[in-house]
Design a protein that fits this description.
Elements (H helix, E strand, L loop, with lengths): L9 H15 L11 H5 L11 E5 L2 E4 H9 L13 H28 L5 H14 L2 H13 L4 H10 L1 H18 L6 H10 L5 E2 L2 E10 L6 H20 L4 H8 L10 E6 L5 H7 L11 E3 L2 E11 L2 E2 L2 H31 L3 E2 L28
Antiparallel strand pairs: 1-2, 1-9, 3-8, 4-5, 4-7, 6-7
């Protein structure tokens, strides 16, 4: 549930919004010479907003306040240079709504006696660390050790941060006043499971290793002939000593998987080109294939394990389903609470969403081709 409280956190939305902009920013071009007059000109991106962006309890929330609050969340108190008027206009409704709700929740917190403090934040963080799974703690330790810190040092630093203190107090308030009563029964989870039976079909999987001698389709005949000779020699060596598969893959394979003794890990049929999958899925664990030809060259495949297709039983899916239903209920509860606060405070918004003229997000780069016979989409 804690992950669903971002709508009430100015810090979260402020940082998330600016991170979104940063992620979509085009690569910087080489700086061009500008005249002193042009260099002196700056664009006021906040001009995208009306002077009054919202009204709460009859009091105006101005764009100057929004700008001040947002800039407080950025490095050096400045927006990145690539932020444009259109970007601010597009993000404005979300930002303004979050600021308003942030103020309203803080007012409710004050009424209920929820006060941010270093002591409370430290206690909360200590409790969360006790509940954290061991693998998550191990990951945290690894990351922090790279920075020369321990989890205790990081927790103490976080507890001293006023913004963290406020965010933690807010999460506690929301959990106890809004989300505490949320419950999901097994019956509810079973109903979702029954309605989405097709989503709990797990396809057959194979764990396999291979040795590749590269010879692409457009290679010349001499290259193909040399590659075919090499793979036949490898086949003969394996016939004499199948246990040498990993060592041969490490020494002879043209695939990056050679660094893992040829292992490709677990995959489903659609992840590989048809010729490779057809061969791999026919093998039994420990069995080694004949030579398999694909668009990448010549392979010898060993099946390391296989799993037949199956229906994931409800008991196995139950925890996941209940977690997802809890998140959905939390989102509804938060939205209803926000609406209640807005109505009580007679909130009026004066910014509306505007569709961007062009997509901000660039097209996803094409996945690099590798020699593991992964099938392109």
């Amino acid at each position: 549930m804690k992950n669903n409280l971002k709508m009430f956190s100015l810090v979260a939305v402020g940082v998330a919004g600016l991170t979104l902009f940063a992620a979509k920013a085009p690569e910087a071009e080489a700086p061009k010479a500008k005249s002193a007059e042009a260099a002196a000109e700056t664009v006021d991106v906040w001009s995208a907003l009306p002077e009054v962006v919202a009204e709460v309890n009859g009091k105006p929330l101005t764009r100057a306040e929004v700008a001040k609050l947002m800039l407080a969340q950025t490095p050096d108190g400045k927006l990145p240079p690539f932020i444009t008027v259109d970007m601010v206009r597009q993000m404005a409704p979300q930002i303004v709504k979050t600021i308003v709700l942030d103020k309203l929740v803080e007012a409710e917190m004050e009424k209920e006696g929820y006060k941010p403090s270093e002591e409370n934040a430290r206690k909360y963080l200590r409790e969360q660390l006790k509940k954290a799974p061991k693998n998550q703690l191990a990951m945290m330790n690894d990351r922090l050790s790279q920075q020369g810190k321990t989890i205790d040092q990081y927790s103490n630093e976080t507890a001293k941060n006023p913004a963290a203190q406020q965010a933690i107090a807010k999460m506690q308030f929301m959990e106890e006043k809004v989300l505490k009563s949320i419950k999901v029964t097994d019956e509810e989870a079973k109903a979702v499971y029954a309605k989405n039976a097709d989503k709990f079909q797990e396809p057959a999987k194979v764990t396999a290793s291979h040795i590749l001698v590269m010879a692409k389709q457009d290679a010349d005949e001499a290259t193909k002939k040399a590659a075919l000779k090499k793979i036949n020699d490898i086949k003969a060596r394996l016939a004499k000593d199948p246990s040498a598969f990993g060592a041969i893959a490490k020494a002879e394979s043209d695939c990056p998987s050679k660094n893992n003794n040829g292992s490709l890990g677990e995959f489903v049929r659609e992840q590989m080109v048809p010729e490779f999958s057809d061969a791999a899925f026919k093998l039994k664990p420990g069995q080694i294939s004949d030579i398999v030809t694909t668009q990448y060259g010549y392979h010898i495949i060993r099946c390391d394990a296989n799993k037949p297709a199956r229906v994931i039983p409800f008991e196995e899916a139950k925890d996941y389903l209940k977690k997802q239903l809890t998140i959905q209920k939390a989102q509804v509860a938060e939205a209803q609470y926000a609406e209640k606060l807005e109505k009580a405070a007679n909130v009026k918004y004066f910014v509306t969403p505007v569709a961007p003229a062009l997509p901000i997000a660039p097209a996803a780069p094409a996945a690099p081709e590798d020699c593991r016979s992964r099938k392109g989409k």
